[in-house]
Structures
1.
Amino acid sequence: MLCDQCHERDAVLNLTQIVENAVTQLHLCEKCAAERGIETTVSMPKHPLGDFLQAVQQQALLLPGDATKCSYCGISLKDFRASGRLGCAHCYGAFEQSLRDLLRRVHGSAQHVGRTYAVPNPELLERDVSLGALRAQLQKAIESEEFESAARLRDEIRTLEIALIR
Amino acid sequence: MTLDLSLLPDGGVPWLAASGEHSGIVLSSRIRFARNVAGYAFTARARDGERLRVLAQVREAVPRVPSLVNSVVLRLDEMNLTERQLLHERHLVSKELAALEGGAEARSGAAVLVSDDAGVMVNEEDHLRLQVFRSGFDVNGAFQAATKLDRELGGEVPYAFHHEFGFLTSCPTNTGTGMRASVLIHLPGLVLTQEISKVLQGLQQMGLTYRGLYGEGSEVIGNFFQISNQTTMGRSEDELAEHLTRVVRRVIEQEEEARRVLLRDAGYIIEDKLWRAYGTLRHARSLPADEAMNLLSGVRLAVGLQLLSGLSVYTLNKLLIFSQSAHLSLEAGRTLTESEANLARARHVRQVLASEAGLADR
């Protein structure tokens, strides 16, 4: 439906006015509604990522102490800036300083309050850490075209991953 | 795979029952926890095999998780678009998990476990999205059930957790508790009296945010708002749930007050407008989705104001969900075009209302 006022844009707001018992119905686009001083509650709510990505953009430089890349999943802070998504749990360690700063801006605090958690089987997590190291080695082996050790690492990773499920 | 809806306990939507407190105004209360399984890259970064292993690990744990023992596993990566959309219309899966945009297939390992009122989305933006719905205004009930599910599942599947940052999520806006508490609320009184923007601004000042009927990125339509906490860190899960409950209770009072004002200052105009909405739904031959939603909003208000009796909120809740496109397509046995869906929607609404008409007409 087109806007009743400008007849150009799509109407996003259905305005019902009651003046001295007479009802008028107007379908307005966001712009014409704004001109009449009506806040458009029907428009898309502001994306929460908007603020947050802006906050990320402002961090032009790596904070000291942060890695350039996550050794587990391989994403950089730049990749994170582009997508707004971290690659894995280990990114929180790799980019700890920058993330602490960011979390504080997004949530007003960078300290988790509330339920704590202990993994049911800590042995699994040790495997998880060695998996990360193996994956990093695999990446290096592929980059330097050492295919024999890459194949060996791949098999080791597979064995560990299967063990993790069991 | 063909989606067999009879497998779903209560169709996966027991919250439509309109049984909880203030169910005329609050359709549902929901708690969700975002969790990731330790040992894998987050979903977007994970390889196909890793996502399948996440799913396998969760399924393997199900027999030891009381909240999920009776659950059904639905594989979105084996469904067609209409089936995935239908699950989305029932709020069982997010738009992202159902891959509704861009004609894409659902990613491998994308699945949802559905139990009575609990569900787990697998391989959404985070590996696991645990959610519990309750009918009406019952944030605490949903919170208790979701917490139980979370403890049970977390005791079987290792979550990614950090001593300082809490539960680790793909997007830092969810880090910490990973919890989103929300209510789906109908606020036509505040919209008609134009008080709504003040109320929404107030929400934002109190750390809450609002979205449309289908959550993030969805439009507000039919005066249905989803109100939820904006931040997930720095406050405990209990505090987040209590805070939402407190603020929403106040919003309900304001909505009730707005309805009293409407009836007092514009009684017969409102009555006429709402009966017209009912008349259109009873007799229209073609109903576009948006129009149906707006008319249903009007009739819901009429029932709330006791102008229209005999029509149950349960029926209106069902119409809201079951008159959507994918539901109509599934009923027709094929994918309907938009204009075909409009005809089918009008027919569906007419039939449902006619069966309760003896009660409603007076």
Note: Confidence is low (pLDDT under 50) at residues 41-45 of chain A.
2.
Amino acid sequence: MRKYDLITPEGTKDFLFEECLVRRETEAKIHDIFRGKGYYELTTPALEFFDVFQTESGHYPQERLYKLTDSKGRLLVMRPESTMPIARVVATRLKDAALPLRLFYNQSVYRFESALKGRSNEIVQTGIELIGSASHMADLEMVSTAIEVLESCSETSFSLEIGDAGVFKELMRELNATEEERENIRYLIETKNYPALNDLLDTMGDSPAIAALKRLPAMFGGEEVFDKAAGLYSNQRINMILDDLRQLYGEISQLIGKGRLTVDLGMVNNADYYTGVIIKGYLEGYGEEVLSGGRYNKLLADYGYDIPATGFGVNVDAIAKVAIKENPREVKPADVLLYAEPGYEMKAIQLAKQLHAESGVVTEFALLDDIDAVREYAREKKIGRIVVVDGEVTEV
Amino acid sequence: MTKPLRIALTKGRLEKDTVALLERLGYDCTAVREKGRRLILPIPDGNMEVVLAKAADVITYVEHGVCDIGVVGKDTIIEMEGKFFELCDLGFGRCRFALATKKDADFYSGFGVKTIATKYPNVARKFFESKNMDIDIVKIEGSVELAPLLDLADGIVDIVETGVTLRENGLEVVEDVVPISARLIVNTVSLKLRQQEIQELVAKIEEALKNND
């Protein structure tokens, strides 16, 4: 019995007409920015081995993966993200390529989101990976490219947030925490759950690192964060991280002004593999970040090629959704409806081809029997011109 | 004037406690008190508006960013989970999740897999996962206390305030699962885009709570 032959699986949907149009326009705009900076496109398979997503630097929670097996019974997953597969490609086929590599991708990712929350399990992401440089200039290139992307999506209402995954990692290094404790602390900082974070850390003793972790989620805002953070914890590496981040903040604020730029040192979400500068981009009218990324210097080593990298991904579906809401539109009807009298079909086909080639006119053939039906159809589809092809060509 | 800050309140007791708190901060909540059947109510002098919703919906609205702030019980947060910031413990609406069984029954005895009746399957599952115990969960919508009395379940995981209902039905608490109180939650994007307004409000609330203690 066919029970599910007329619906799509939970978390997926069909995209029609203007949704596709706006999505393609969004992609084209963003890819133009990427190409303009020397990035080249690659695609990776939608299916990958499960193992690709289980690395030292971070593993994807298995309950969020779509899984299936290949003909030999090996475990496959639908790719839940693109950075890890790209790291795999770079560490294998691109191992001898000159560095840095500038790569961009545009492909769907698949992950189980909580059910019944109106979220999609299949989303299109586009993004860049800048691989093989740990320099400040590389961070700046990544962040400024992200800004250009956000600017191209919305002139007025975006904001960018920067942080550094290193601060949390350095502080945790001072703590003798089990993996489970570490994850609990990370989660409570991510959700800015001050009461629970304090309770948990209180059970772990009293040290400068613990005091600093307690204050970490509150370390967000504008430039004043750097002054607040100066007394957070004195450790050479953390001071260096903060100095670099402050420099980056100063440089980016020249690009977009301080109003749209925030800092959050308590930004510890995202994938585990981030090691340095991390960013998130927000658009007004969308309840989650639309862009996120950062530096991941250890991930490629997990695939056997120890080089630094940075990058970000953009949720194309989210941006297209905001764009449609801000600027609703309809798909344009064809310019001309072409009606061929019996015996003149080939002439009509020639004419349509010629019109399109010469002046970009969009022509539809009227697949109807008489001119009254053709008129009726043109009215319904809002096609402005009807052209009849017989011995001659007449517009009616 | 910017868009008002939208606050989702859990209807019922948490709503009353929150309104009392806001009034103590000096906001005019007349519209909320005299709401009639309206569901979106202005707090004119605070550039805020209040949305009244069921607990689980408060989380949904805040997660999607259609409300900036929410007030909701920790019980619903543990059950629903979700992506938002949980900024402060408001201190009211205190109670706890507890595991209860029939009086004098030894819940942990025997080798059989236990059956738990609850309105909060995720809370129950997480609690027993932390004990590495497999259990069968039966979801009950109404009075959970009935299930062990009717021998449908070995125990229940439910919210316990005073324990009177349990006692009157011959049940007793075996173990506390987790304490509960009302929490202030904030949408992750709102906190960043409207940081000043939200942090000022949170600071005021924390100040008021401190004076309360």
Note: Chain A touches chain B through 21 residues (CB under 8 Å).
